[in-house]
Amino acid sequence: MRPGVKKDAVKHVTKCFGLSIRRACRLVQIPRSTYLYDSRPNDDGEIIKEIYKILKRNSKYGCGMIHLKLRQNNMSINHKRTERIYNELGLQLKRRKRRKKISSENREPAVIPKTPGKLWANDFVSDSIASQRKLKILTVIDPTTNRSPIIHAGFSINGRHVSEILDRAGEKYGYPETLQCDNGPEFRSKELDKWCYEKGIRISFSRPGKPTDNCYIESFNGTFRNECLNSHYFESINDARDIIENWWTEYNTERPQKRLKGMTPIEFESKLNELKTKPAAGRI
């Protein structure tokens, strides 16, 4: 007998014979908790509105990022419910087929310092504006906190420009101890080498053909291209700089990351600084 039929039987017994609900449930053989339970349909309307609001701002977010943004907006929701709504709405992103990776011998893992600001990873990303003129973008990230100290777009960036851009970021946030970069001509230039020597900064070059040595900036560049460069049309260099700066600000202050336990880079950096300055517990 189905639970709905048993509930009707309990109502009939209590009404006709004047028995208590407890005795009627025992006669019909249905738990009293089942009889008293009142099912409520899941109201996903508010969650769907919030999901579309998030996707309107950035259409490249996947299910995991949407869940983190919902939690960031103080919505108490389980990740399974987010995945169910995400699949029902058909919001899955099309992924490229990745080629099979073959593990290389003697791979050197990237060593991340525990203190923020000690290591900066650098790289270049290419794009173009409406006039088909090539755009060159210098990206910088602190792998410890995933915070980007600076990002700069221009038509031509050489070693002197790189040193000037990094000098601006160093004056604002403090200079790193090590620069991680590839073997590009901009990073091997005499101007950048002289600037690093004057500031006491060591340059760590990636091994040729081993982008995994600088994997954190490669991951950042993938996110930057997917969420910013591929989603906008740049009319001019000034338009590109404004859009890129807005995305850069959102990445540092609003975008939660799973690697940072759902915190933004700014929040995670503040957390590390608090733990660093917190006095040790216990008696002396």
UniProtKB/TrEMBL annotation:
GO molecular function: nucleic acid binding
Biological processes per GO annotation: DNA integration
Residue stretches making up the Integrase catalytic domain: 112-273
InterPro entries: HTH-like_dom, Integrase_cat-core, RNaseH-like_sf, RNaseH_sf, Transpos_IS3
Pfam families documented for this protein: HTH_21, rve_3
Gene3D superfamilies noted in UniProt: Ribonuclease H-like superfamily/Ribonuclease H
Superkingdom of this protein's organism: Bacteria
Protein name: IS3 family transposase
